[in-house]
Amino acid sequence: MKYTLLLLLAVFLISSCTDIDKTNRLSKIDKMIHGLDSISAQLKKEKIDTLAEMQLAAQGVEYRIRGNFVADTIDLELGKKMDSYKRMRRAIPKLRSNIVKLEKGVIELRKSLTSLKKDIENNSGARGKYDEYIKFEKNKFDQIVILFKEFQKNQTKISDTYSALHVELYNFSMQLIAK
């Protein structure tokens, strides 16, 4: 009787520990999925069309200045502004492609996290490797977060440069045509 009671107690303790592990694992996965949802929502707010419009507008300004500016020398201040404006325009295609890459990464990671979550809930697969799998997926999640923060930083930089210089350089390019 004692041995049966001890055996039942041991089984109960082992099963309760696995429930705690299961809950912790599912919690980690849910946090990552929630983070992906947040990133995905912010990416959907970004307007790829707006970036394309900015790029076309900047190309038009540069083309007008290049085609109509006839002086031998250029004012240092204007040269710096043109250089910043040109770098901004050249960074837009990379930023647009990064949006697409981030969206793909979010979709792929969400799919693998959902699959892992289902395996953990159903106790299927290699249960001894669940923690390794979660750690692997966490590393991928951390990389996506880093890429997203870099994307936001670059987008802000491009928007700030465009806002600061576009009107002035547009007006300058239009004055060159009028001459």
What is the secondary structure topology, with strand pairs?
Elements: H1 2-45, H2 48-68, H3 76-122, H4 130-178
Molecular structure report:
The protein has 179 residues and is mostly helical. 90% of the residues lie in helices and 0% in strands. It contains 4 helices and no strands. The protein has helices at 2-45, 48-68, 76-122, 130-178. The chain is rod-shaped, with a radius of gyration of 27 Å. The model has no long low-confidence stretch (mean pLDDT 86).
Described by its quaternary structure, the protein is: single chain
**pLDDT averaged residue by residue:** 86
Helical stretch tally: 4
Query: N-to-C terminal Cα separation, in Å?
Result: 106 Å
Give the strand tally.
0
Cα-based radius of gyration, to the nearest Å: 27 Å
Low-confidence stretches: none
Outline, from the CA principal axes?
rod-shaped
Portion of residues within helices? over 70%
Percent of residues in beta strands: under 5%
- Main beta sheet: none
* Topology pattern, helix = H, strand = E: HHHH
Structural class: mainly alpha
Compact description:
Helices cover 90% and strands 0% of the residues. The chain is mostly helical and 179 residues long.
Please name the defining characteristics of this protein.
mainly alpha; 179 residues; 90% helix
